[in-house]
Design goal:
OB fold (Dihydrolipoamide Acetyltransferase, E2P), alpha+beta, 2 helices, signal
Length: 102
């Protein structure tokens, strides 16, 4: 009988946790093809693709939370970056470093 009391609670928690969606994080080289911002300058973004695994037409939009980082990112340059995504939300830039070949 005690097990029956816990079943609805556990079942509800299971359903709620599955609705949040997966968390995905990717680290790769990216090539920047465009960058921009919203009309009110509240959101900054870059369009980039992984030159090792994707074609330019597969470029994704990545939100850049830090305006100072966005200012330093240059179009037509390659960077090493980490970007993440939770569920169906857009990609968010976590880390970016200039990628140089010697």
């Amino acid at each position: 009988m005690k097990r029956m009391k816990w079943f609805p609670l556990i079942f509800t928690l299971f359903i709620l946790s599955s609705c949040i969606g997966p968390y995905t994080s990717t680290t790769s080289a990216i090539f920047i093809i465009d960058k921009g911002h919203s009309a009110d300058y509240e959101e900054y973004w870059i369009k980039a693709y992984d030159p090792n695994n994707q074609e330019e037409y597969e470029a994704m939009k990545i939100i850049v939370k830090e305006r100072m980082a966005w200012n330093l990112i240059e179009v037509n340059k390659e960077y090493f970056s980490t970007y993440s995504k939770k569920g169906e939300n857009p990609w968010i830039l976590v880390n970016i470093q200039h990628f140089e070949l010697d």
